[in-house]
């Protein structure tokens, strides 16, 4: 089991301007921030920003509303970004969705917003909303949006995109359509009536489109701001020591997997909102029809009390405001507590009281991960760092016999330890949205306790009741793991629940050449000594194994053990029937899962508990005996997958190119976006051209048209476009059936383009020199065919290949035809004939 530290996993949504998915250690922010948060007690406005993906949100507007206007602000993302590319690693699909989810949560912690999602899965680039809704379960996604609106109860909804098809990504347009339809339906009791057992109907007052000059690039229309709402978002935030733009830049920079670092700016700047729809009585201006103050709520005296607390706040002694905050709670209790927005202020005041007290409370486990049935040693620590006496009247830690109370004297630690026995049927802590019967277009999320949530609820929480000036303040505290790293210092990690024994196949996908024997490595891992048992492999029809069961005798010491199965096939198998599974059976239990760890410094480490399965496709394929050097770009798993199929592949660097001569490889492959991400490689293209000229083969996979570090990505001119084919089932026409790349060592036909996933390819060249031969013609429905997906040029004695085909997606999915085609390209210089 990988024992790298697991950082904190955030809890479910907290609807408060005072915090945005804060870490569940109770510890105060600086006094300047507390002073700013007190101002939020005067605000009742809620704003919900709506778009399609992580990175679509306008962090300037979110920061403006949350940090400057002190509005409760949220971002509803239709998807978790699962279908995009990954600039920082090799994770795609579910793994990438986990990364981007956490990047959004980290961004909201900076800009002050709350994060929400629907159950829509990012299935990849979509050219129009019709295609999007043909994939997404439209009614389910719309229902999720209605539920979030009913729960968050925004007064204003703002979309990032317009409803006009063709301007941008189909998911973008669909998000605007969903937002407008949900705006209409959230107040209708006949729409999704099953939700009303959990939330009440709600009618937002107005919906806007957040337009900008970007939407008018290359169009005849000028950016006309007449009749638009104009917001100056260039303000300075003294409590943070930054401008709104600078805070927003830090927020946007959390989208590291997409390379969206931003430094922000200073000085006035503006955002523009196009009115889309308003309810009657709300048409006059941006805030008309919205109760924005205590006076409009019928309690003008409350606002005066808050102003007094603000004017008397002492940043050197924030605890001096606690007594007035307690009095304010009692004043608010005399108002209309049936009004949900007023009632929310009571919990916001409790948070402020705790912050003003300088209170630290932590509930720590002795390890970062456990398995069902384990005993967890818990350490409780509380320190009152104010000069106000207060008392813990009750501590409730479910599953323990703790019954503690006592005074929290100034700066005196209150500590104790106890044991918690985890239930044997406790759920693992992998993301809730991955635990159902998901499709490539939707996650299976039906529980109303989860719909809209950014991530799982905490595994364990304690409830602490404080007595402050005879006022009861209740706190929820999440059980976490703390450690001290020699480099990072204090690290707070989540308490994760994982399988007791992990059964992980080394290969997740294997293309098995027919009549060739291949080995499969399976590793058993446990935090305790492995018990005796039997490891079994379960095979689909057509795949054979010499020994399907392997007995293991535990020695009471060994915790990691690898096993090897040898499989073969006499003929190709059906792609749809290629799952191989594993299970380990002991006298007492059966295990058939393993844990994936995703670890990056800018987000909490993530886990995903997956079934102990792999994909095996028996394929008629010939493997050449060539040496491949792979220069990584933005990150993909292609070199490992080629190694698994039996090829010799080394990951190399620019330094290994040796001026293009005497390179110890037959083929050089550039990983995805290598010419976007590797400036040194871009300066070394002449070495690759020399290598080709002297008989080698170079294969360049897709690069984006923007951020390209070379003027021309080939020995002959090529211009990259944004052209792509998003329908993975689109017809593929072979243009030159006699070309060597389509015949040796494997005969490529239209059948090799069956069962592709997510897309055909992206960023195809638009124009190219006549020395390149286009081999394929591909088109999306109702569009002209594109011929730039696969270009091959003879250059000197070798071959230069430029391709936008999505090998980085197809190989991890085990698509046989993609392997056969890529291997043919690798074989070009070593095939027996040229066209």
Question: What does the model show?
Answer:
With 835 residues, this protein is an alpha/beta fold. Among the domains are: 45-290, LmbE-like (Rossmann fold); 501-618, Sandwich (Immunoglobulin-like); 622-830, 3-Layer(aba) Sandwich (Rossmann fold). It has 16 helices and 42 strands. Strands 10, 12, 13, 14, 15, 16, 17 and 18 form an eight-stranded mixed β-sheet that branches. The chain has a seven-stranded mixed β-sheet with strand order 3-2-1-4-5-9-6, sandwiched between helices. A hairpin with a 2-residue loop joins strand 16 and strand 17. The two termini are 52 Å apart. The model is unreliable at 1-22 (pLDDT under 50). Residues 1-20 form the signal peptide.
Short description:
Pfam families: PIG-L. Residues 1-20 form the signal peptide. The chain is of the alpha/beta class and 835 residues long.
Terminal CA distance reads 52 Å
Helical fraction equals 10-25%
How many helical stretches? 16
Q: Characterize the main sheet.
A: 8 strands, mixed
Could you tell me the CATH topology label of the domain at 45-290: Rossmann fold
- CATH level 4 superfamily of the domain at 45-290: LmbE-like
The proportion of residues in beta strands is 25-35%
Low-confidence stretches: 1-22
CATH second-level architecture of the domain at 45-290: 3-Layer(aba) Sandwich
Rg (CA only)? 30 Å
3D shape: globular
CATH first level of the domain at 45-290:
Alpha Beta
Q: Strand tally, please?
A: 42
Mean pLDDT: 91
**Sheet/helix structural class:** alpha/beta
Pfam families: PIG-L
Protein name: PIG-L family deacetylase
Organism: Mangrovivirga halotolerans
Keywords: Signal
């Amino acid at each position: 089991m990988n024992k790298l530290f697991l950082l904190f996993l955030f809890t479910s949504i907290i609807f408060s301007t005072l915090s945005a998915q804060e870490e569940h250690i109770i510890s105060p922010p600086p006094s300047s921030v507390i002073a700013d948060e007190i101002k939020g007690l005067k605000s009742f406005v809620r704003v919900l920003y709506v778009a399609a993906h992580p990175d679509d949100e306008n962090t300037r507007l979110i920061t403006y509303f949350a940090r400057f206007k002190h509005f409760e602000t949220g971002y509803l993302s239709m998807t978790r970004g699962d279908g995009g590319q990954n600039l920082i690693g090799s994770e795609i699909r579910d793994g990438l969705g986990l990364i981007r989810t956490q990047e959004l949560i980290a961004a909201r912690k900076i800009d002050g917003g709350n994060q929400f999602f629907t159950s829509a899965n990012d299935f990849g680039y979509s050219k129009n909303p019709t295609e999007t809704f043909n994939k997404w379960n439209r009614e389910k996604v719309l229902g999720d949006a209605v539920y979030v609106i009913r729960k968050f109860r925004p007064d204003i909804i703002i979309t990032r995109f317009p409803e006009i098809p063709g301007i941008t990504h189909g998911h973008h347009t669909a998000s605007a359509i969903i937002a407008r339809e949900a705006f209409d339906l959230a107040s209708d009791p006949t729409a999704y009536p099953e939700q009303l057992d959990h939330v009440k109907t709600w009618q937002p007052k107005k919906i806007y489109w957040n337009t900008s000059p970007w939407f008018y690039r290359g169009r005849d229309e000028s950016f006309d701001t007449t009749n638009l709402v104009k917001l100056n978002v260039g303000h300075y935030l003294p409590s943070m020591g930054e401008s709104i733009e600078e805070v927003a830049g830090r927020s946007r920079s959390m989208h590291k997997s997409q390379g969206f670092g931003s430094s922000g700016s200073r000085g006035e700047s503006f955002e523009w909102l196009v009115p889309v729809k308003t309810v009657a009585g709300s048409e006059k201006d941006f805030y008309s029809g919205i109760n924005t103050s205590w006076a409009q709520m019928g309690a003008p005296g409350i606002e005066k009390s808050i102003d007094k607390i603000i004017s008397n706040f002492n940043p050197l002694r924030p605890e001096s405001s606690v007594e007035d905050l307690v009095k304010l709670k009692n004043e608010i209790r005399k108002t209309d507590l049936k009004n949900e927005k007023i009632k929310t202020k009571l919990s916001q005041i409790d948070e402020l009281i705790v912050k003003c007290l300088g209170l630290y409370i932590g509930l720590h486990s002795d390890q970062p991960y456990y398995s069902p049935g384990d005993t967890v040693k818990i350490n409780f620590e509380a320190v009152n760092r104010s000069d106000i006496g207060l008392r813990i009247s009750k501590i409730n830690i479910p599953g323990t016999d703790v019954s503690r109370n006592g005074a929290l004297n100034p700066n005196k630690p209150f500590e104790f330890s106890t044991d918690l026995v985890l239930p044997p049927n406790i759920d693992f802590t992998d993301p809730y949205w991955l635990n159902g019967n998901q499709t490539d277009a939707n996650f299976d999320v039906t529980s109303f306790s989860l719909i809209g949530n950014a991530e799982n609820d905490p595994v364990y929480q304690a409830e602490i009741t404080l007595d402050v000036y005879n006022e009861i303040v209740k706190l929820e505290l999440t059980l976490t793991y703390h450690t001290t790293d020699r480099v990072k210092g204090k690290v707070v990690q989540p308490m994760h629940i994982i399988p007791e024994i992990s059964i992980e196949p080394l290969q997740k996908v294997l293309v098995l050449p027919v009549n060739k024997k291949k080995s499969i490595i399976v590793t058993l891992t446990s935090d305790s000594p492995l018990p005796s048992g039997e490891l079994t492999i379960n095979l689909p029809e057509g795949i054979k194994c010499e020994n399907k069961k392997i007995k293991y005798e535990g020695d009471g010491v060994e915790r990691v053990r690898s096993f090897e199965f040898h499989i073969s096939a006499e003929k190709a198998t059906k792609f749809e029937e290629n799952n191989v599974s594993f299970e380990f059976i002991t006298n007492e239990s059966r295990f058939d899962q393993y844990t994936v760890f995703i670890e990056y410094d800018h987000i909490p480490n993530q886990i995903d508990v997956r079934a102990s399965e792999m994909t095996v496709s028996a394929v008629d394929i010939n493997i050449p005996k060539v040496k491949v050097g792979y220069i990584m770009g933005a990150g993909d798993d292609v070199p490992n997958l080629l190694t698994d199929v039996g090829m010799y592949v080394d990951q190399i660097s620019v330094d290994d190119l040796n001026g293009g001569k005497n390179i110890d490889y037959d083929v050089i492959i550039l990983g995805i976006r290598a010419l976007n991400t590797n400036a040194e490689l871009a300066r070394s293209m002449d070495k690759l051209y020399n290598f080709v000229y002297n008989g080698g083969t170079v294969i360049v996979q897709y690069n984006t048209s923007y951020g390209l570090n070379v003027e021309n990505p080939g020995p002959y001119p090529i211009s990259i476009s944004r052209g792509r084919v998003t329908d993975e089932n689109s017809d593929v026409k072979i243009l030159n059936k006699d070309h060597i790349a389509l015949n040796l060592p494997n005969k490529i036909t239209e059948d090799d383009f069956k069962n592709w996933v997510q897309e055909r390819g992206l960023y195809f060249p638009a124009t190219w020199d006549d020395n390149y031969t286009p081999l394929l013609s591909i088109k999306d429905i109702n569009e002209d065919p594109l011929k730039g997906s696969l270009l091959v040029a003879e250059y000197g004695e070798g071959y230069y290949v430029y391709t936008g085909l999505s090998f980085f997606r197809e190989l991890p999915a085990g698509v046989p035809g993609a392997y056969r085609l890529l291997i043919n390209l690798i074989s070009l210089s070593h095939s027996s004939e040229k066209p």
